[in-house]
Amino acid sequence: MERFIFTSGSIFHLQQLECHFRRRGGRHFHLADDDERLALLRETSRSRDQVIQKHFRHLWANLDADVIDALMDEGGVEQPANSEQVFLSRH
Question: Would you kindly state where each structural domain of the chain is located, as residue ranges?
């Protein structure tokens, strides 16, 4: 699997997502490790916790389209249910 390239905005939201996931009783993910980053995205994309989903949607809205496609196709990450609403609220 290719290494995913994140923008500075998406890195900020990725850090926020990991921090909130860890605080809400999840495990710690080492964001410098590609496999750990992907595991965090897989787990949080399936979370039913509203706070986690909010941060996941913010991250998702800051990802490039090619990264989103690769995460869904190769990484097993699920698209947030209302990601279109996040995108529209930013523009």
Answer: 8-90
